[in-house]
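Forum: Protein Structure Q&A
Topic: Joint prediction for protein chains with partners

I've read a bunch of threads here and the consensus seems to be that you should model interacting components together rather than docking separate models afterwards. I'd like to see that in practice. Below is the full input, 756 residues plus whatever partners are listed. Could one of the regulars post the assembled result?
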Amino acid sequence: MKFIIQRDRLVQSVQDVMKAVTSRTTIPILTGIKITATNEGVTLTGSDSDISIESFIPKEEAGDEIVEIKQPGAIVLQARFFSEIVKKLPTDFVELEVLNHLQTVIRSGKSEFNLIGLDAEEYPHLPQIEENNKFQIAGDLLKAMIRQTHFAVSTSETRPILTGVNWKIENGELSCIATDSHRLALRKAKIETDHEASYNIVIPGKSLNELSKIIDDSNEPIDIVITENQILFKAKHLLFFSRLLEGNYPDTSRLIPADSKTEITVNTKEFLQAIDRASLLAREGRNNVVKFSTQEGGIIEITSNTPEIGKVVEEVQSESIVGEELKISFSAKYMMDALKALEGTEITISFTGAMRPFVIRPLNDETILQLILPVRTY
Amino acid sequence: MKFIIQRDRLVQSVQDVMKAVTSRTTIPILTGIKITATNEGVTLTGSDSDISIESFIPKEEAGDEIVEIKQPGAIVLQARFFSEIVKKLPTDFVELEVLNHLQTVIRSGKSEFNLIGLDAEEYPHLPQIEENNKFQIAGDLLKAMIRQTHFAVSTSETRPILTGVNWKIENGELSCIATDSHRLALRKAKIETDHEASYNIVIPGKSLNELSKIIDDSNEPIDIVITENQILFKAKHLLFFSRLLEGNYPDTSRLIPADSKTEITVNTKEFLQAIDRASLLAREGRNNVVKFSTQEGGIIEITSNTPEIGKVVEEVQSESIVGEELKISFSAKYMMDALKALEGTEITISFTGAMRPFVIRPLNDETILQLILPVRTY
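Posted by a regular:
Agreed with the consensus. Here's the joint model:
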């Protein structure tokens, strides 16, 4: 194998596939990046066996030569060293050549690295996915949907299925749901699909988090293909594979209350900042819980009290309080996570009593909601 | 105690004195910030008993009212909570009031905190320092002198005196010297002094590091007063006390070779980047050592070789190589630290053989030098 490549493009691709590489693997070859040169260009692959990422660098693009292939071939190089090296090379072009015995030379200006590679034949094959049934979603929308749901997955392995995000596709609509059984995040969107299939799958939260880091914040469409135990995201020159979690995701639809007894509309930022301050003294005591109560004149009072340290009282003027008076306690952290995930300057919170889960929605937006279970303190 | 203060000024002062506060203290009251209100303004104090910082906020400045004192007094508040609170308060002005039993109320807009304070009478007194013998140095020069020397102090407690920077003042010149016995950093500058006294003291590296974070990067003069076991730095509205290290600092003047056998002049940035790359594969093997050798045509070759991983060869075109041929090995980390500390686009390295310490200086600048001991590998 031998080729000369634009350094910037190589650096970008290495950074992308590095998202899948971990040093904590039991399969030594997966600490490497696989580099394959064909007459079409160069492909880099990284994998931790849960996530696999493939980035393709074409020989040329818009008339600009990006890679000059001198001899096709393949090699696996230690990801940690290779990524550090390419970042620091001195010139705009890099030559990569595999000599005999897997010895690989990287040349740039007056800098020359000799790395001992691993045999590319031993690198695991990526899943072969038939692309019959695919659907499409814009990159920026996909990123938003991940951001608004994946934080609510469980971090505990006691119910492994809850460490994933439940994706349901039906009637041209994608619903993403995450819950750790104390709170739930839901986001829906219309999608482009060329078939009638419906799906109900669970994608590891970690996979979605890594995916959202490498897709562009543009409306370029991402193709999505779902199989029995894999999901494939296809962007331009990029393939992102994730395994799916096995098992049935709990039916969450009945958790969301249909009616409400108290409905409050409030400015998102003011409310978020008040919750943040009210929780300052509560961070260690009692699991970060604040008390919330409705007052005369549309005022919301948020308080917390940690005996040895002190107490906080915050007042927020709401837009409106409709329905019954309410005193309720909840995790300030869950509330702040939920408020940060919502878009829009105003939110509505619908309560059905101090012991029932409550729902937070942006004003006039039915595609997203956040649900939080209260804490018993009153 | 009761006063109303501009939030921005309070936040800045709290941040400054926080540099001296640590949660790892055996004296509980030192986890707090002491707040004293007099008719002149508000003083904040933080201390870990090695370093003490006092920040004064005047009642008014340039006709602008900064603090309105309603009742003088003093209190100590938990630094961690107090600093978080003031940062997040909603309005531009903050009211602070001590009620009975050390209860302290912090009010801002519709936010009200009740903190349980500690008795200010129990806060240790700061050292009383007579200001008879002081000298002056511009803030930006002081910061530069700290930056260029303190990194070379020892991090090991086996010779505690080497964890400090040796300051020598004589004939209107300040010399700062730091060494961990493998390398040495030296920086000199002329200073303003109103007396003939000479000093030879050792200031803890940590103190200087914290000091350099809170002094402005301007040419405003800093007053310095040295006593038996303390040093005081006085900037506008700011006092910074540090204890001095006890013991005699080794005489380092004889370490610096007077003559040289090989002298190399090279572009600082090109050389630094080549060393950085050459060390990429050596970071774990053999203590990050690279080999350096002079070649025909003014070329410097830098190499490293880690058997299981690979090897690197870097070539740098020097401006000049004068004197004997040379092969030498040294720590890439020490060399990079030294090069980053030096100002100037070109440096001269003076070697007196492969086993002797060598000296790095900017071209045409006698006020600063870095010395490194080589490693035996050739």
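Chain B touches chain A at residues 78, 81, 84-85, 88-90, 104, 110-116, 273-274, 276-277, 280-281, 308-317 (CB under 8 Å).
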